[in-house]
Design goal:
This protein starts with a helix and ends in an 8-residue tail after the last strand. With about 400 residues, it is an alpha+beta fold. The chain contains five helices and 21 strands. A hairpin with a 2-residue loop joins strand 14 and strand 15. Strands 2, 4, 7, 9, 10, 11, 12, 13, 17 and 18 form a ten-stranded antiparallel sheet that branches. Strands 1, 14, 15, 16, 19, 20 and 21 form a seven-stranded mixed sheet that branches.
Length: about 400
């Protein structure tokens, strides 16, 4: 009995020691949890930018100049003096048609003109003698009239021969085809040895793409609004808009454009007006026939905040961001967004310049918790997040 009581006492003491140890361990862990640092998150400081009213239009590019080279006389194509796709200079020889037949025609026309001129000189001389004789009664009036007619016919024959000579000279000149302007020449449709002529297809096309034209259509209501607001029909010259392009690969073209033409009528059945802009294209990046997005932005601008796409989330109430306040606490803020500009959203309501929004570490926090913010920058074009480097004074 005494032995049993002793064992029971030992078991009780052991249990008390174990419970005491657990209590100490739990307190220690609690102290550790209390002392754990707040989670680190990357934040972006809201920036502002001058933004104008914005519209986007589907547009198509067109060459500034385009010439379809054709044969104007019939003959064998005997020479080609360029490489397909190359730049050719104004006046450069491109094609040559066999000139032999046209050289022969030219010689014949020259000989015919000489003959007609000789006949004219003879007719003029005969008429002059007849004019002296008719007063003395040596020739009749009928003979005099015939000589007058022959003189007129001889002069007419000379004029016809001169015209034929000019035609022969033109035909011979058409055997040489030169570039009407400096540009890039395309694919050749007829090789040397082919017979070509006025009824043949295009030999090749020559284009000039600097500048490049961009054609687009505007709704009649929008066009009328512009004219009424600006009280001017000179939209190509006085248009107070900035023009830019987004290419089919979703990249932004680095040159700005300007309007240079508006049509004189509304397209029937479409209710639109055709407009045209021109863009510098020195590197030939933009080719004719390309579908692009023309972006118009008014020159009258207003200051607006921009937020990175990486900071924006959505729930049933709409889009929101997580804002870090001056005490490094997280709050949820619903925002009203405008259009997207590359990797940024325009903020219509909900954020102001200088406020910090979380862009990395969103999964580690919730509203109300304290965080350790690390300010970073965002590439507004690509959305790449970078560490903000603060310059130091090295004096």
């Amino acid at each position: 009995m005494v032995k049993f009581k002793t064992q029971l006492s030992q078991l009780f003491n052991t249990t008390l020691f174990f419970l005491f140890f657990l209590t100490l361990f739990a307190c220690g862990e609690g102290e550790k949890l209390k002392k754990s640092p707040p989670p680190a998150v990357s934040v972006y400081e809201i920036q502002t930018e001058s933004i104008g009213k914005h519209r986007e239009f589907v547009a198509r590019t067109e060459a500034f100049k385009e010439a379809h080279l054709r044969a104007r006389v019939e003959g064998e194509l005997i020479e080609r003096h360029f490489r397909e796709g190359a730049i050719v200079e104004k006046g450069q020889l491109l094609f040559k048609v066999d000139p032999a037949a046209y050289q022969a025609s030219l010689v014949q026309a020259q000989a015919d003109l000489a003959s007609k001129q000789s006949g004219e000189a003879n007719a003029v001389s005969n008429l002059k003698r007849a004019n002296d004789l008719i007063n003395d009664g040596y020739i009749s009036q009928s003979d005099f009239d015939q000589l007058t007619t022959k003189e007129s016919q001889a002069k007419a024959s000379v004029k016809a021969a001169e015209a034929a000579l000019k035609r022969a000279e033109l035909d011979l000149s058409y055997t040489i085809i030169t570039a009407p302007f400096t540009g890039r020449i395309g694919k050749v449709n007829y090789n040397v040895g082919n017979i070509v002529g006025p009824k043949s297809d295009v030999l090749a096309s020559l284009i000039l793409t600097d500048p490049i034209y961009v054609n687009f259509q505007v709704e009649e209501s929008l066009y009328l609004d512009y004219l009424q607001n600006h009280n001017s029909l000179k939209i190509p010259h006085n248009a107070k808009v900035d023009l830019s392009l987004r290419l089919p690969n979703n990249s932004n073209y680095d040159k700005k454009g300007q309007l240079n033409f508006s049509d004189t009528k509304i397209a029937q059945g479409m209710g639109t007006v055709e407009l045209r802009a021109s863009f510098a294209n020195p590197d030939g990046i933009i080719l004719p026939g390309l579908f692009v997005t023309l972006i118009t932005q008014s020159q009258k601008k207003q200051i607006m905040s921009l937020v990175p796409q990486a900071a924006v989330q959505a729930n049933q109430q709409g889009k929101f961001v997580l804002v870090v306040d001056d005490n490094n606490k997280v709050t949820q803020r619903h925002v009203t967004l405008g259009r997207r500009i590359n990797a940024m959203w325009l903020v219509n309501e909900g954020l102001e310049a200088g406020e910090k929004v979380i862009i990395e570490g969103l999964q580690k926090v919730r509203p109300g918790v304290q965080v350790q913010p690390i300010v970073k920058t965002v590439d507004t074009i690509t959305g790449t997040i970078n560490v903000l480097i603060i310059p130091t004074d090295n004096k």
